[in-house]
User: What shape does this take?
Amino acid sequence: MNAPEHLPAEPLATIRASSWPSLFDCAHRWYFQNIVGLRMPSSGNAALGTAIHAGTAAFDGSRLSGEQIDVVTAVDTARVALQSPEQEVAWDDSLTPVEADTFAVKLTTRYCQEISPTRQYAAVELECHALDIGTEYGVVRVTGTTDRIRIAEDGQKGISDLKSGGRATEKTAGGGRRAVTKGHHIQLGIYTLMAEQASGERLDAPAEIIGLQTTKEAPVATGEVADVKTPLLGTEGHPGLIQIAARMLKDGIFPPNPKSMLCSAKYCPAYGTRCHYHD
Assistant: This one.
């Protein structure tokens, strides 16, 4: 997937894997965050997600290395990450530090006890420094870290991505629970492409979301998405999202979306004087 020789080596932009959904939710907000460089404090929910990732990664990483830590140590790792965030956190009434600590303990514990033992991982926190994807409009460079590469029962490999939040899981018709996968296919596809490059292997197993829900019961569940690469790469006669993104970057066109769920001063650094579309 390297750039064709006739294209310039310099990428149109470097896009973090985690920001791809935002690009197609409100490209105008994405532009101000990722091109202009406007930043906002991390939310409490984001800080909690980072903490859970730290604790669960410590647990799974130790399993992979053969030096298994216990659940208490994994929980302590999550709590330390929550108490010492790498960036400023804007706490509010939607999630207080005390509530976040409780969820960090509950969800890290449940993941380590209920999810991790049922999974065989080939990689944990696999980093991709730069994946250059060539399109007819130019090169898009993708960076990021894939949460997990798991080995399925049939021996095929696929990615697993942890998602926490108040709607991370949902009830099934049979009364069970599954992770909410809707809306995650873009990010899962990017993670899959990055992990294939970083690992040197094809990942043909379905991608997986591991949902960790921040509600009183703190349920955890998983859900699969069968084909996450086709929407990104496209088919004959139908451009993929990567090509569409490259054209947006080349032409400098970033459409606003006033109906976005994140169209507010809380989530968009351009909401005030820089954006005139939401009114």
In short: The helical segments are 20-25, 27-36, 44-65, 71-83, 97-115, 185-199, 230-233, 241-251.
